[in-house]
Amino acid sequence: MGRRSIFKGGCKTRQVVDQRIPYPSDSSPNDLNRVFADDRAPGQPRGDQRWSTFLRNHAKAILACDFFVAVTATFRMLYVFVAIEHGTRRLAHVNVTANPSADWTLQQLRAVIGDEGGLQYLIHDRDRIFAKHLDASIGALGMEVLRSPVASPKANSICERVIGTIRRECLDWMIPLSEAHLRSILKSWVEHYNRGRPHSMLGPGVPDPPRGAAVVPKSESRYRLAAGALVLAKSVLGGLHHEYSITTVSASA
Known about the structure:
Blueprint: E1 3-8, E2 11-16, H1 29-35, H2 51-57, E3 62-71, E4 77-85, E5 91-97, H3 102-115, E6 121-124, H4 132-140, E7 144-147, H5 157-171, H6 179-195, E8 229-236, E9 241-248, H7 249-252
Parallel strand pairs: 3-6, 6-7
Antiparallel strand pairs: 1-2, 3-4, 4-5, 8-9
Helix pairs in contact: 3-4
């Protein structure tokens, strides 16, 4: 069957030349792509890159951000801005405001981009708060803005997942009394998330491991600590979470 490919508006679409095979007039290019075979020879790569492949290949250069809502004990609605690094899973920035705006969001992103090096891409959704002048300002800082498709939270899944983690492990158990109280809660939890909470994707490890950890002698048994080793427990948010570490008697003295 004869057919040809045309380019219109930057997207490749299929135009059927041979009208001997009928098809619905309202068929989209994606529908036609499912029907017709690909032009590439067997064994050759697609020539483009899937979204999941792009995220995996450029994880160390991607920063993702989003907002979520928190409600105080007096039923006041606050907005929490979250920015996370894909490569390290480190929460790069978290802040709270009662009146989010494009200018306020741009200020938060500038603080992150100014502190971090090597970031090339910023992922966010199509909310109105991410205005055109915000994207232009981020582009002037040397980052490319990638807007996720409409109603596609999986396109920004890592940021969506960490928001769910914040809710399940922190805000579902603590009710903030005010904006300042919520900011204090999140500050403590973010420090725990970055330095004390293991992540299976990291080995397991932590996004921002502590420096200068004590050298602990290896134990001969799997069930007993080596001589002179101690387990330290650190309470987080009044006992909501605990961080455990191993040190030596001399280091803890």
